[in-house]
Predict the 3D structure of the following.
Amino acid sequence: MPRGWKSPTPKVECSGWMHLCHPPSTKRWTLDPPHGGVTPIWVAPRPAVFHGVELSVSLSSSHRTAVDARPQHRFKLLAFDMDGTLIDSLAAIVDASVEAFAGTPFPTPSADQVRQVVGLPLELCVEHWAPQASRTEVLELAEAYRRAFRGQRERGDISERPYTGVEATLAALTHDEIFMAVVTGKDRRGLDSALAHHGFSRFFHSLQTPDNNPSKPAPDMVWTANRETATEARDTVVIGDTSFDIEMARNAGAFAVGVTYGNHDPSVLSRAGAHALIDSFSDLPGVLAQLSEAEAP
């Protein structure tokens, strides 16, 4: 009998906290702590039999809603950019770039220069900010930036916060038939740190970074998330704030929703091919319902 189950009578009661979702390739029960990561499991018809014993699983009201209520849209994977979409991090990025470029022969990038390339891998950003730098200098500047950014977080003075409505909307979108992913230009170490800092790890089943994928606007991060969640691009929506996010979605064969409060102007997002634009993250559920009527991206 797995840890966390009790069997004083023929019926087994679950004393743990359960997160439920059901990719076709996964067929197992698992228990997670209330604030732990989500582990995909197969939701067995109830009553189920475990080692010959009938299972009786009691869920909280919030989880019963997630399991029983039908989703308000048809999509199977929602893939979110991080900076400029889920979190407002521009000031922190500018601060780290100022610190990284201090004492170098290169001019410090302006906030507008930073805004133009947020979402790309750091080394590409540095090449944009200091086009005359050698490859060695680019790598040194990138490492100096990483040290500066980590220092902000360690000191607790980082200028970074979730956008209004993000956590509540992610919670509202959580459903046992829907997967959620992050597709970001951050490296994996930076992404893990940001998710832990803001308490968002519990929402996501797939985390995609340039560590193991070509960078945006290549479609690979979307396709890798599709493989990890057994979903297809035509049933996927990418949500992001830059043209790189929109182009990545279109290149992958997915739908694209642009957020207008981030780093690129709405006109830029429209020209890149966004299927819809939202002015607030809380508008996302309604837009997903509207996009569900479209047959293909």
Summary: DSSP finds eleven helices and twelve strands in the chain. The mean pLDDT is 81.
